[in-house]
Amino acid sequence: MNATIKDVAKAAGVSVATVSRVLNKSATVSVAATEQVNNAIKELGYSPNFLGRNLRKCETNVILAIIPSTEQTFYSDIIRGMQAAASESGYDILISTSNSTYSIEMRLLNMVFNRTVDAAILLGTQLDRQTLTELNERHYIALCCERSEGAELLTVTVDDEGGAFSAVENMIKKGHRKIGIVSTDVNALSAEDRETGYKRALKKYNIEYKDEYVYRGTYDFIHGKKAFDYFMSLPEPPTAIFCISDLLAVGTIKEALNRGYEIGKDISVCGFDNIQLSELYTPGITTVEQPCYSIGRTVVEELIRSINNETKSNKHIKLPYRLVERESVGEYNK
């Protein structure tokens, strides 16, 4: 027969409560008692029923991470940071995909509602601020990468506006005055923040904002190509293009190359994210780096701290960006 916790307590000469405290790594147990219990566990081959224990405590030590899709490659580094922080605290990360669909998000969040997981992190969401706030009042919910204006819950992002401002300012300092932006009509505040940074840079250097220098589509690669075709059809095309994601920048650059433009000389292009492709692509793509690993790590550390303290953190943490200069942005010499 398998040894029980009572057998361990008897063999160690301590109470069942003391064995339980040792298993839970409580600091209130003496070194001697801890050693007695661990020796008894080893001798008897005792295997704790962690599942049963967690169910009684209404804890699973699992955090659900809901990603909108698997197409954004920078999610992998965010998840890596999440897993590292979770592992250090005895937690696991369960990953699922919502396909940016409200009904799927809510179905996945049922795992929080029925205590299958302890908490959930949304890397982008279709839920409105009121729903997010209400959910966080009853459960442990956090946002990562994307924010929700007015929502009261833990949120960790990069400084999207500041990153975009630096990217456009870099182009301006290289002599560019006609600067287009490739953005999105998808409901994402990170995109709005990056547009705000773009506008702020133009304003600082007394450059007129022009609606015709704004292209909005989706985050799909193809819209980088369509954006370039659109810009080049204008009577006065931009000499530099800021894209709110690296995938859009790759699409823009590929179409420019197909049409015979020399990147960094005839046209300058900057992205955002610093995915691996931006470094491997030829020419290398100037971009704004998101600290993806740190974003993932920070949101999990803060969330676990909230769970352990039985408090709700509503902090909005903005992590710093880094402008990475490569060959795709050059001096304007015409």
Describe the protein.
- With 334 residues, the chain is of the alpha/beta class.
- The protein has three domains: 5-48, 434 Repressor (Amino-terminal Domain), CATH 1.10.260; 59-158 and 292-320, Response regulator (Rossmann fold); 160-289, Rossmann fold (3-Layer(aba) Sandwich), CATH 3.40.50.
- The chain has 13 helices and twelve strands.
- The chain has helices spanning 5-12, 16-23, 31-44, 50-57, 75-88, 102-113, 129-138, 160-173, 189-204, 222-232, 246-258, 276-280, 292-309, and strands at 62-67, 92-97, 119-122, 141-144, 154-158, 179-184, 214-217, 240-243, 268-270, 287-289, 316-319, 322-324.
- It starts with a helix and ends in a 10-residue tail after the last strand.
| Tally of helical runs | 13
Secondary-structure-based class equals alpha/beta
Query: In the CATH scheme, what's the topology name of the largest domain?
Result: Rossmann fold
Cα end-to-end separation: 85 Å
Percentage of residues in DSSP E strands: 15-25%
Approximate shape: elongated
Number of domains: 3
**What would you give as the CATH superfamily of the largest domain?**
Response regulator
Oligomer: single chain
CATH class assignment of the largest domain: Alpha Beta
- The ordered string of helix (H) and strand (E) elements is HHHHEHEHEHEEHEHEHEHEHEHEE
Record field, number of beta strands: 12
